[in-house]
Amino acid sequence: MSASEQTMTRRGVLGGVAAAGAAAALTAGTPAAAAAAVPSTAAEAGPAGFLPADPLLHLLRRATFGPGPASIAEIRKLGAKAWLDRQLAPASIPDKVADGVLARLPLSGLSIAEIRKQVAAGKLKQYSWDPMWQLGFAAVTRAIWSERQLFEVMVDFWSNHLNVTCPHGDVWDSRIDYDRNVIRKHALGTFANLLKASARHPAMLTYLDNRYSTKAAPNENYGRELLELHTVGLAYTEADVKDAARLLTGLTVDNATGQYRYDAAGHATGAVRVLTFQHANATPAGGEAAALAFLDHLALHPLTARRIVTKLCVRFVADEPPADLITALVKVYLDNRSAIAPVLRALFTSAQFAASAGAKTRTPMEDLAATVRILGYGPAPTGTKFLESLYWMARDAGHAPLNWGPPNGYPDVASAWASPSGLLVRWNFHLSIAAGWWPDTLVRPANLVTGMVGALPATYGALINALGVRLLGMAPPAKHVAALAEFYGKTPASPLKAGDPAAGWMFPYLMGMLLNSPSFALR
């Protein structure tokens, strides 16, 4: 972090402390206060008083990294169905802003061969983490500025479900390719194809040790995680793990090229039985086909269907999703042979989804992205320091993109993220970003007040209400408006004049305090 960024961080901390009294007044006496100002379930908080009764904004909050001015205008123009149809066909959506920023991160899109070629040419050091750092910065870019929001949310979902930690020294040359040719390629396709692509990619084979698994010494690590984390869950026995490990031998990585290859000589033959899957596995040459048949079987197993559907419902509906919705979506998943788009369409058009407002909270990374998106701030015209700053903000909140260490991926329930220290980190980056302290190069409106609320309102209450509608989709409750006005030593009825600090240098504090509210914390 540069000296100037450290200074801005200190200013953010001081500003957060200065505004804490007003923020506490916003949360005191609400159900949110019981969970560090973050309501964790609809039963605790409920949408009343916290969220606007607007199904379009509800869909945006769940199917994107947060509403922004452009996405709100788009969904109001198209309607929910047409907007969802468009998002489920991401290749048809121009993505000029995100693509322009990604062009500044050339290492984030390199193949295994291209990374190794740069090493051979002396442009990169062997084992360099630079491409993986750039991939993390690219994830921030896409979450904030991509127009293909649902696709990016699903990329994030699958990156956690089939986690390969990034950066990680063992996958220095393959993690970028894994993102492009496994996760991104199949994010809205079928889970069966995604699973098979993951199982034959050097990043996964290296991360979970299958590249070192041979008939002489089968390694059980990937076989166990394949069952427990990627597919059926805790339904397996130790005998299942051993047979899965034997069946997966031979799926390895060519040390000379870094590419996937099937090594028939290293494959363990002999009949296998894993859950309800049986295979003669009679020849070394047929080992890869047997492994692929096994992966197809797992992808279409009813327990896998339930596991995938449940995780999707946790992401998009509630920390404890309705059982009847899960059951209905399992049928959609199996009827469509693991195709994900039909499941998402059924989920987002369900009555249970419509009724779930207030039942999810944002993760730290999502909160960060949602902050920039709702403010409508653009990327810096040049350079990448602003991306690095945003990435470090997410890391400081415990949620650097792709950086979860264990193979199970980041958690997506409120209880995993609810803590006073985590809340303070969020409050500080709300203010730092809104005020333009850090990053200080994001493109903001020349006049923040008119850029946020239009013409200068007549009173403090009118200013607070207008900004609440702009940032939260609704005017804050009257007691919150009074608390915010009191922060400036005013009442809601106090006249607001040009040059008043609340509409000038202290306006970012008002933005920050509204972003600190339970309403913004809700997904």
What this model shows, in words?
The chain has 523 residues and is an all-alpha fold. It has 26 helices and 4 strands. The strands form 2 sheets. A two-stranded antiparallel sheet has the order 1-2. Strands 3-4 form a two-stranded antiparallel ribbon. Helix 15 (302-316) packs across helix 16.
Question: How many strands appear in the DSSP assignment?
Answer: 4
Distance between the termini: 30 Å
Bin the helical content. 40-55%
Biggest β-sheet: count, sense, barrel?
A: 2 strands, antiparallel
> What is Rg?
25 Å
> What's the arrangement of strands in the largest beta sheet?
1-2
Q: How many helical elements?
A: 26
Low-confidence sequence ranges: 1-46
Class from helix and strand fractions? mainly alpha
What topology emerges from the helices and strands here?
Elements: H1 3-27, H2 55-63, H3 69-78, H4 80-87, H5 96-102, H6 112-120, H7 130-145, H8 149-161, H9 175-186, H10 191-199, H11 202-207, H12 221-230, H13 238-248, E1 251-253, E2 260-262, E3 272-274, E4 277-279, H14 287-299, H15 302-316, H16 323-335, H17 340-348, H18 351-354, H19 364-375, H20 385-396, H21 420-435, H22 448-453, H23 460-472, H24 478-487, H25 507-515, H26 518-521
Antiparallel strand pairs: 1-2, 3-4
Helix pairs in contact: 1-21, 1-24, 1-25, 3-4, 5-7, 7-19, 7-20, 9-10, 10-14, 12-13, 15-16, 15-17, 16-17, 19-21, 21-25, 23-24, 23-25
